[in-house]
Specification:
single chain, alpha+beta, Aspartate Aminotransferase, domain 2, Aspartate Aminotransferase, domain 1, Alpha-Beta Plaits, nine-stranded mixed β-sheet, seven-stranded mixed β-sheet, 27 helices, 17% strand, binds pyridoxal-5'-phosphate, kinase, EC 2.7.1.36
């Protein structure tokens, strides 16, 4: 092998920093782009001082004692290139070979039969193919693991057999991130002899230098960014270890796959502009990724705030690169998009100054069989974009045309912008969808009116924290939420029950670039997006004073959902919430607010769709046949989606809610809830056959500190475990008995009421023993339980104030009730007579209809609903002006009179 690199002479970044020409002002080391553009090898000066490295287009060299003898072993043009690449890669050695795959081939030849290799599961297809070959022909075992999770590598590390670990980060085409530094460290600790190899093609040495993070060998397909013009094939290998360099040099010389002089020349020329090309390309890539993300496509790009592993990538790399991929949800749609572009060339490969588009599953990764692709989570509809240096506005324009022509996006007249059309398996026609909802109105034009109930815990509060089952039921006191369109590009909220709070924001000024929307069909992850929360706190919520923590929290929950659901959809509207529930009294006012806000937003954004109605032409099918006063008219899938988002809002409001409140609010009825742990599985079970019961809820109006009360019981359990455990066991028995009785369809009503009455008294006694009652609650208990009224009462929720629940038998006389209410009010308590176990989430039917002659039957014609927008004053009135001013006592009747309500 010729003297390609002299490690002794070659220090990292060895282009000498010029000597200081002033003792005061020292010279700084050159930056990457300077190093890149300056091809200078102090040990290989050109005899004529040529500015560009000459091409030594020769196979042999004359003489016997010269530096070079035969070009397979060494060539001056190649030496220049290798020196230059070593310099910009923080490497002591570099080798130029005929392609990226040739580079990998050279590296894999270090392996011996019996060796084991650990490799990523989202590798370049050609890499997979070559690994498969050596597995079959060389007797090397290859383990494919998910390198995004370093822990998944550990079981495969064998201290004596693991000879090589092959990593890519970000991967191609899913841009998965592997923590190269952490993995290298873990491997070195467990299998010190293993060689860590990184394919750095996606990043190039400009953006990532894995040798600095513990890798032993790095290779690049220089066909890509290093050359930048798709006019040559080449591979570059770099390393610092002399022993490895020696082996690689030996293999390259033996195999004869070193890069030809003319390609070395071309590559050297290309590398000079690496930094400028990359800067431009990744800036444009970021624009394209943001654009697609804002339309609601699932986009894979490390520059997006929600990209998994983004922080790791930021730690180990200096940029996000210029390759991204996105999913359309439909393979045919993707094919249409790819086929519809003009500026984006349909081509495999990347790294060129020209932009390319491809579908990995049918192109670059077609060599991986479909089953393996599926197993490795490579979506068949995935489109990969490799962004070039063209003007970004032209690139976006061309892409937008292709998306429109393919039917992936369509113009929304209301938003004056293109919005995504959801494929949902079959392509959805926006026009048809709009006809199905609210007559000829679009989702944004409809005033969506929703409502959700509060809850009462009947049995098991406090004990539930310690693993005991609690029974909760919906109360017939509801929160109402109404969206009303605006036409000034503003978003506003009006929370009547939080000090009549009103605020509005400019939609364009929301921190969109810091918040990534969740693509449709994707569930909100378990963790909240803290970056989004931070961005909202610092930005739009900053306008709200610290003295309004409740309003701020509710606005945060609302804006979080709006921005997370939105993306390309940025409808302008007002959301007003009003409640007939006392707020902060432990009756689930927050969960009913969360449910209303989530439902209204999901409807408005089209994330949930009401089922289409039968055609009205035939009167017998033109009716909405809904039994149970509209109950079960909302499909379970909608309820589930709403519940998930209501839980997200509850998390924002309360940190770590159990989920029981929002579940009752969505599903209504009654449910038994058991928390995980203590040898039990967490579970929420609907109590079927629950009969609606009358209860009196009395708000003591004594504020309570739930956290303190819960902690108090916890402490008591530590201090007196026997006493508390016995109490908990008794409460579990109460819950079990109540559950059985409530679900027992055989039991007559009188017996049920007397069982419940006894259980209520008993449960309250235990709560007193747990120290969570309050004198005001005892007063309510005494008043309702007096000889005259004889009712059973217990505290509900955390206690220490808040509310008490009193079971009201069916035959309890109206006059007695009226006296009791007066007495309670006389003590400055707020009593509410309500029933429990009624409907959950309700949506005022958006379908045009009018009341039919037959009771409970509604005809799918007429003009009673959908509620009309102000713009449509011809036939109807907007709901909002009425909703804003109705006295709270009239709200339920007014809402019911508006039309058909559909319930879960
Ligand atoms: N590694 C990656 C990540 C690649 O994308 C490619 C080619 O697309 C290669 C290696 C192989 O390089 P070459 O085509 O130069 O052999």
């Amino acid at each position: 092998m010729g003297p390609s690199i002299d490690t002794k002479k070659l220090a990292t970044h060895d282009l000498p920093t010029p000597d200081s020409d002033s003792p005061v002002r020292t010279r700084k080391p050159y930056k990457f782009s300077t190093l890149c553009a300056t091809v200078e090898n102090p040990h290989q000066k050109d005899q004529y001082g040529s500015s560009s490295v000459p091409i030594y287009q020769t196979a042999t060299f004359k003489g016997v004692a010269g530096e070079y003898d035969y070009s397979r072993s060494g060539n001056p043009t190649r030496s220049h290139l290798e020196h230059h690449i070593a310099k910009i890669s923080s490497a002591a050695h570099a080798f130029a070979v005929s392609s990226g795959m040739a580079a990998l081939d050279v590296i894999l030849r270090i392996l011996k039969p019996g060796d084991e290799v650990i490799a990523g599961d989202d590798l370049y297809g050609g890499t997979n193919r070559l690994l498969g070959y050596i597995r079959n022909h060389v007797g090397v075992t290859v383990h494919h693991v998910d390198t995004t999770d370093p822990a998944s590598i550990l079981p495969y590390i064998n201290p004596t057999k693991t000879a090589m670990v092959l990593l890519e980060s970000p991967t191609n085409p899913l841009l998965k991130i592997a923590d190269l530094a952490l993995i290298s460290k873990e491997i070195k600790e467990r299998a010190p002899a293993a060689i860590i190899v990184v394919d750095n093609t996606m990043m190039s040495p400009y953006l990532q230098r894995p040798l600095e993070h513990g890798a032993d060998i790095v290779y690049d397909s220089a066909t890509k960014y290093l050359s930048g013009h798709h006019d040559l094939m080449a591979g570059m290998i770099t390393c610092n270890r002399d022993d490895i360099a020696k082996q690689l040099a030996f293999i390259i010389n033996s195999v004869g796959n070193a890069l030809t002089p003319i390609d070395c020349f071309l590559l050297l020329r290309g590398v000079k502009t690496l930094a400028v090309r990359m800067d431009r390309q990744q800036t444009s890539a970021s624009l394209v990724a943001t654009y697609l993300n804002s339309l609601g496509f699932k986009v894979h790009y490390p520059g997006l705030p929600n990209h998994p592993g983004r922080e790791i990538h930021q730690r180990i790399a200096d940029g996000n690169g210029a390759v991204l991929s996105f999913e359309t949800g439909n393979k045919e749609l993707s094919e249409k998009i790819v086929g519809g572009t003009r500026l984006w060339g349909i081509s495999v490969s990347f790294g060129c100054v020209n932009s390319l588009i491809s579908m990995p599953c049918v192109m670059s990764h077609a060599s991986i069989d479909p089953a393996t692709r599926a197993a490795r989570g490579l979506p068949e509809d995935l489109i990969r974009l490799c962004v070039g240096i063209e003007d970004p506005s032209d690139l976006l324009d061309d892409l937008e045309h292709a998306l429109i022509d393919a039917g992936a996006i369509a113009l929304s007249v209301q938003q004056n912008a293109y919005v995504r059309v959801q494929p949902d398996g079959k392509t959805l026609n926006k026009a048809v969808e709009q006809l199905a909802i609210g007559g000829s109105k679009s989702k944004e034009e409809v005033e969506w009116f929703v409502s959700a109930p509060g809850k009462v815990i009947l049995f098991g509060e406090h004990a539930v924290v310690h693993g005991v089952t609690a029974i909760a039921a919906s109360v017939d006191l509801r929160c109402y939420g109404l969206t009303a369109p605006r036409d000034d590009n503003k978003l506003s909220v009006h929370f009547h029950d939080i000090d009549n709070f009103y605020h509005e924001w400019d939609i364009d000024k929301l921190p969109w670039d810091l918040i990534s929307s969740l693509p449709r069909n994707e569930d909100h992850p378990e963790e909240l997006d803290q970056q989004a929360i931070e961005a909202l706190q610092q930005g739009p919520l900053n306008e709200i004073g610290d003295d309004k923590p409740q309003a701020r929290a509710a606005a945060l929950a609302f804006l979080y959902m709006y921005t997370k659901l939105g993306g390309g959809y940025r409808p302008s509207f007002n959301f007003t919430a009003r409640s007939t529930l006392p707020v902060g009294a432990g009756l689930g006012s927050s969960a009913s607010f969360s449910t209303c806000a989530a439902t209204a937003l999901l409807l408005l954004f089209g994330r949930i769709d009401m089922p289409p109605l039968p055609a009205p032409s035939d009167p017998s099918t033109g009716h909405l046949h809904m039994s149970h006063r509209g109950r079960r008219a909302i499909p379970a899938t909608i309820a589930e989606e709403t519940n998930r988002w209501a839980f997200v809002a509850e998390k924002i409001l309360h940190g770590n809610p159990s989920g029981v409140d929002n579940s009752v609010s969505v599903y209504g009825g009654a449910l038994a809830y058991t928390r995980a742990g203590f040898g039990k599985k967490s579970g929420m079970e609907q109590i079927h056959g629950f009969k609606s019961l009358r209860f009196l809820l009395t708000n003591s109006k004594v504020p309570r500190d739930t956290k303190k009360l819960v902690a108090g019981v916890g402490q008591m359990k530590l201090d007196q475990p026997e006493v508390v455990n016995a109490l908990l066991e008794s409460i579990q028995n109460i819950s079990d008995e109540a559950r059985r009785a409530l679900a027992d369809t055989e039991m007559n009503r009188e017996d049920l009421l007397s069982v419940l009455s006894a259980l209520i008294k008993e449960n309250h006694g235990y709560l007193v023993s747990l120290g969570v009652s309050h004198p005001s609650l005892e007063t309510i208990r005494d008043q309702t339980g007096s000889e005259r009224y004889g009712l059973s009462t217990k505290l509900t929720g955390a206690g220490g104030g808040g509310c008490a629940v009193t079971l009201v038998p069916d035959d309890f006389k109206d006059e007695l009730m009226s006296d009791l209410l007066t007495e309670l009010r006389g003590n400055k308590f707020d009593p509410y007579l309500t029933s429990v176990g009624g409907s959950g989430l309700g949506i005022l039917s958006p379908y045009e209809q009018h009341r039919n002659d037959r009771p409970g039957s509604w005809q799918n014609l007429g003009h009673l609903t959908p509620p009309k927008t102000p713009a449509d004053s011809l036939t109807g009135e907007a709901l909002r002006p009425h909703f804003e001013v109705k006295p709270v006592s009239e709200l339920p009747d007014w809402a019911n009179g508006l039309g058909k309500w559909l319930y879960v």
